[in-house]
Every structure is written in C-alpha cells, then in structure tokens.
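Last lecture ended with a question: if I hand you only a sequence, what can you say about the shape of the protein? Today we answer it with a concrete record. The protein is Malate dehydrogenase. Below, first the input exactly as provided, then the predicted structure, then a couple of comments.
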Amino acid sequence: MSATPVTVTVTGAAGQIGYALLFRIAAGEMLGRDVPVRLRLLEIPQAVKAAEGTAMELDDGAFPLLAGVEVTDDVKSAFDGANIALLVGARPRGPGMERGDLLEANGGIFAPQGAAIEAGAADDIRVLVVGNPANTNALIAQKHAPSVPPERFTAMTRLDHNRAVSRLARHLGAPVSDVSRVTIWGNHSATQYPDVSQALVAGEPLLPRLDRAWIEDEFIPGVAKRGAAIIEARGASSAASAASAAIDHMRDWVSGTPSDDWTSVALPSDGSYGVPDGLVCSFPVTAAGGSWRIVEGLDIDAFSRAGSTRPSPSCARSARRSRRSAWSEPLLDR
Ligand code: NAD
Ligand code: LMR
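The predicted structure:
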C-alpha cells in the first residue's frame, strides 16, 4: 500500500450521486486497491448534517483504504491540498427541462470552486465536473484557476460513452467488453454526437453489422436522450450509473486506458478537429502516465460523411465539419 493518502474532494456529498460514489472510492475502485484515500465532503450548510450522516456510514464501512473523512461547507478548505476534485454538487433537472436550463441555478457554484482550486489545491489536481450543464461548468471552473493547466479540468461524458457501448453490445448480442472505439463528440447534452464510425466489435468493424436507420433513429437519439428517459422513469436523474461513470473516468485518467481502446472525455480543446481552442468539448481520448491525449487523425466513414440533420453543439459541429472538409463535401450540420 502506498503511504500518503490521496485527498479526494467530493462536492454535493449528501446528494444522490454522492451517496453512490463515496463508498466505491473508499473501497479503492477509483484509484486502486492499494491507494489510501482521504475524503473531503463539501456541502451547502443546509445539507452538512446529511453529509455527516454519510461520513458516519463511511466510518462504519471500516474501509482499510479510508484514511479519514472530513465534512465542510467551506469552499476554500474543501479544496486545500486536494489531488482529485469531483464537482458533483449542483441542482439536477426535472422533467421537461434541458440541462442548459440549469445554468442559471448552477453556474454560480463553479466560479468560487475554481478559485478555491487555484488557491489551495495540490499541484497534481485533477478535476471532473459532473454537475450540469457539465461542459459549461467545467469551463467556468477552469477560467477561475488560471495557474492550473487547463487540461486538468474535465467534464463527464463517460456516462454517455458507457450508454453507447452498452446499447451497441445489447443490439449485437455481444459482451460489453467486446465493443471498443466508440466516441461521444460535443456536450453532455441532447445535441451530442455518439459516433460509431470507428467502433469495433471483437476487433472487427462494427458499422457493417448495423442498419443505418437504427443508428439514426434509435441509437443516436437513444443515447443522447437517455438522461431524460431515466428522469421520466425514476422521477429523479441518474445517480448510480453517473457515479459509476465518474469512477471509470478518474480510474482511466490515473491508471490509463487499455492499449487498444479509447474513451470519451470533455476537456478544453487544443484545436483538434477544428474545435476552437479552449472550448470544453468531448473527444475520443486515451490516457497514459496520468494525462489525457486526444486521438488525432480519425478518418470519416460514409455514414458520418453524409451527416445527420440533428442540431449539434458548436464543439461537435466544428469537429464534424473539420472531419468532413477532408472530403470536400458540403456541411450538413445545423
Ligand atoms: P442531488 O440533488 O441529489 O444532490 C446534489 C447535492 O449537491 C445536494 O446535496 C446539494 O445540497 C449539493 N449542492 C448544491 N450546491 C452545492 C454547492 N455549491 N456546493 C456543494 N454542494 C452543493 O443531485 P444529484 O442527483 O446528485 O446530481 C448532481 C448533479 O449531477 C446534477 O446537476 C445532475 O444534473 C448532474 N448529473 C450529471 C451527469 C453527467 O453525466 N455529467 C449525470 C447525472 C447527473
Ligand atoms: C444524465 O445524463 O443522466 C444526467 O445528465 C442527468 C440528466 O439531467 O439527464
């Protein structure tokens, strides 16, 4: 077991996702079963008591890797010395809302948290924004932490990625572990572009086994609108699957992605695929040595080349436009 515990700050610790997330972190599922963790739980004052209840349960779990749990409503001390920050705390949407409708309620949360990260987090801080609208919130936090390398601020599209992989596997009757090289481009919103053009099943191209109508009419909208379907069914937004995706995201960031696959992460663009510099956009990425790297130079297949009439967010639109321009074809995105 390594000696120094990793300090992990989780905001919104008394919420649904927090409850599904914290016990898995304490069990070593995020950073490894030999890495001790110290948890910092940040909540708003009204929810501190509930977070303290969660901390009591964490104690009662007798997790060998759990070196301590602190609960606070003080933003500055929550991030002091933090190595990892999971920014979950934010209002979820209700039925009939889009995630962008949450900006007014949630946008104000992320500037002070970014500033607190700037002021006191450890040099190796890695940030995952889960609270919606996640891409915009990540950009807000990042802009308030100018001395932290921008690529340390990420937003979660891993849930969309996992939804896409799972849906493809079920459709093809294949194990989830056989599906690789799926990409979510764009925002964690209904305008994202789940892209199967490079995907493989058991190492073979997946596209020839799919019907274009199924991709257009079921797969893409099914993935992009899954969050709303869950809200409709549960009466509350996804929680355990979101927590699981957050664990997957951080585990891959720290421990690396498999050599023959990539994942999807929203991070500040470096200009790849024509996405304006700095815009937080989901790309295909690999991780090695603790850093993400955008998968460059992906070619485009006939399906994606023909385009779709769905609206796209600016970052996905730019990405797709740049890929298409290589083929000198008209731009069909709106
Ligand atoms: P929840 O309402 O159950 O919990 C949110 C918690 O955040 C509450 O306990 C609240 O007190 C706390 N909170 C609010 N403002 C805070 C602040 N300034 N500092 C610290 N804590 C604060 O909601 P949830 O189901 O846990 O969802 C949390 C967020 O995650 C929502 O915005 C939801 O839309 C989003 N979400 C994102 C994804 C994704 O894939 N990116 C997936 C699922 C949910
Ligand atoms: C999800 O995708 O499940 C979350 O972003 C919650 C939501 O509002 O859809």
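Comments.
1. The pocket of (2S)-2-hydroxybutanedioic acid (ligand 2) is lined by residues 92-93, 99, 132, 159, 188, 227-228, 230-231, 237-238 (CB under 6 Å).
2. The two ends are 52 Å apart (CA to CA).
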